[in-house]
């Protein structure tokens, strides 16, 4: 086992309990953890693209947790107001930047608040969702934990199965190390983990199809999210989004799948119970 692999395991064993405990207790603790993850992910994305206007980077880094705070209180109207304010401020700031690259990049900061910022923030919406006759806290808590299990059972199994048995590249031009065998293995293990949660009736009011929806979102779209981030890094010419998490790279490397899966599953749950 090489040093990078040992570091990867160490960070995983240290980080997983923090996120799972925050999801378990919910409330302000979960808001703080997700806000930290989202803010660091936004920062890493802007650093990767060499985002030039520093004042706009600061704006993005401040507005991301502010948006998540509004999401915590289910004030999605306030989130929209914040995004509109940021867009207007960014638009006015163009008057003070003459270089073409600054103008081209001006709205990247606004985009970073949405992805990965608000996309990760939908974890907060899921954790605070209130469905009648569900035992609200248990329902929302277990949805979030199930989603985390789905994403990381896919990620871990795809990594090790691909490493052991992978022969056929999944998307050679984007990520040469990812294989079809690993991707299929990830989807299979994710499905099995969700069927196990269904068997023990982990989430109140959920049927087998709801667990299989997690398997589809995490097993397929989660891996697509990982490939998208790999595409961004490849086009920029960097290996990791940062070195904050040692063998895991950066926060964006670690939570890129969750940034895609969480909003998709929040939409699924919202449409199922509220529309």
Account of the protein in words:
There is one protein chain. The protein has helices at 3-25, 27-48, 54-72, 76-93, 100-105, 108-127, 136-165, 180-199, 208-236, 251-274, and strands at residues 169-171, 175-179. The protein is mainly α. The chain has one domain (3-274). A two-stranded antiparallel ribbon has the order 1-2. Helix 2 packs antiparallel against helix 6 and helix 7 (136-165) runs antiparallel to helix 8. The longest helix has 30 residues, at 136-165.
Short description:
This protein is 77% helix and 3% strand. With 275 residues, the protein is mainly alpha-helical. It has one domain.
H/E element order: HHHHHHHEEHHH
Largest sheet at a glance?
Answer: 2 strands, antiparallel
Shape descriptor: globular
Give the helix tally.
10
Query: How many domains?
Result: 1
Q: Which structural class best describes the helix and strand composition?
A: mainly alpha
Q: Please, what is the average pLDDT?
A: 88
Ends distance: 50 Å
Unreliable residue runs: none
What oligomeric state do these chains adopt? single chain
Sheet-strand content, in percent, reads under 5%
CA-atom Rg in angstroms: 19 Å
Q: What share of the residues lie within helices?
A: over 70%
Based on DSSP secondary structure assignment, what is the total number of beta strands? Answer: 2
Strand order of the largest sheet: 1-2
């Amino acid at each position: 086992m090489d040093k990078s692999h040992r570091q990867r395991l160490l960070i995983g064993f240290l980080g997983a309990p923090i996120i799972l405990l925050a999801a378990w207790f919910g409330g302000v603790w979960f808001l703080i953890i997700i806000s930290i993850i989202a803010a660091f992910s936004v920062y890493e994305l802007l650093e990767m693209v060499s985002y030039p206007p520093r004042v706009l980077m600061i704006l993005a880094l401040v507005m991301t947790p502010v948006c998540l705070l509004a999401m915590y209180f289910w004030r999605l109207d306030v989130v929209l107001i914040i995004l509109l304010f940021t867009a207007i401020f960014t638009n006015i700031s163009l008057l003070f930047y003459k270089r073409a690259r600054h103008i081209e990049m001006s709205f990247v900061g606004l985009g970073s608040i949405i992805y990965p910022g608000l996309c990760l923030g939908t974890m907060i919406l899921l954790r605070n969702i209130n469905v009648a006759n569900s035992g609200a806290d248990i329902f929302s808590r277990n949805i979030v934990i199930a989603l985390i299990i789905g994403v990381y059972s896919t990620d871990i199994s795809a990594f090790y199965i691909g490493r052991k048995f992978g022969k056929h590249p999944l998307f050679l031009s984007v990520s040469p190390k990812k294989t079809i065998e690993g991707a299929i293995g990830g989807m299979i293990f994710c499905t099995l983990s969700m069927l196990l949660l269904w068997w023990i009736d982990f989430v109140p009011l959920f049927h087998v199809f709801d667990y299989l929806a997690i398997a589809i979102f995490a097993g397929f779209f989660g891996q697509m999210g990982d490939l998208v981030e790999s595409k961004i890094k490849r086009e920029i010419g960097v290996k990791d989004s940062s070195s904050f998490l040692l063998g895991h790279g950066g926060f964006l490397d670690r939570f890129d799948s969750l940034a895609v899966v969480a909003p998709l599953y929040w939409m699924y749950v919202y449409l199922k119970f509220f529309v």
